[in-house]
Amino acid sequence: MKKVVFSGIQPSGDLHIGNYIGAIAQWVKMQDEYDCIYCIVDLHAITVPQDPKTLREKILEVTALYLACGIDPQKSKIFIQSENPDHPYLAWVLNCITPFGQLERMTQFKDKSQTQKEGTTAGLFDYPVLMAADILLYHTDEVPVGEDQKQHIELTRDVAEKFNKTFGETFKLPNPHISKFADARIMSLQTPSSKMSKSDIDPLGTINLLDSEDRIREKIKKAVTDSEPSISAKVHGQGNGAVQNLLTIYAAFSGCTYNTAVQKTQGKAYGQFKQELADLVVENLKPIQVKYKEIRNDEKYLRQVLDDGRNFAISKSSKLILEVKEKLGLV
Ligand code: ATP
Ligand code: LTN
Question: pTM, whole model, 2 decimals?
């Protein structure tokens, strides 16, 4: 029996190379070795305000991007979280055993609640419990995510353990699977102290998977560096992290290690290095963009993939929900 992989991305903005390097590129690699389930986590997306028309469009865009990046529906299942009601159901059950204090310590909640002008919501606070439900519903072994999500997976394990102890062995404890590239945290090209993020208000900070070639070149050209003129061998652990970040992107897209990237580019003037980096990013994203256009235009095919994924997901999760209800005395 193959081990189970589960992961998801919120359809909350434009997917960027951080999402690709930190998450999707690993998902693609894991397809042969594992039974993979990849979700479009739209119920997570609405924990911050979304425009309904845009959200609907983004859900299909993310689905098409999963496929264009190489997720193969013959090998892996893709579905929309809100199409399987077992997710919010289990989240409610888990809410009832999750310590409030542990949720208060979640760094993503602390960061995101600060950016909410209208005040924060119970949904945003509860976000990690819904994520725990996503993972636990499928007896997941491995969760390929960026490093920023590690804390949520630790919470998932804690909640699963607590349930198992209280009601008897039910859930498998999942492991985070983090990409090797700089602990899989790609930083903003403008503010290298913050992670590259869909919700960044500075458009120059992120390279989106669907950015045009000109836009990619412009963003890399304008990326901040440091006061040195060229790449030095001592780059790691020095300065503001901007050059390390560009080197990490270089390594990820050329399939080499970070140290090899440093060796290959040592002594290069930043201008020349940036040009090579832009060539590399453009070359890697082009086939994804061509495939994306083809797939996004075929809504019938997209719907087929999503229906198949949803049917599969419900067939698995409904069994677990029955078991949970029985254990709680709800049947
Ligand atoms: P938002 O700004 O809406 O929170 P995001 O850009 O942080 O979005 P998510 O949907 O939260 O993206 O994350 C999807 C996946 O991509 C997760 O596995 C996450 O760890 C990974 N990821 C997101 N940003 C980065 C990044 N900068 N570097 C590496 N991985 C990332
Ligand atoms: N919180 C995750 C998205 C997410 C997720 C999941 C990832 C929701 N449910 C289950 C892995 C497994 C994020 O990337 N921000």
Answer: 0.94
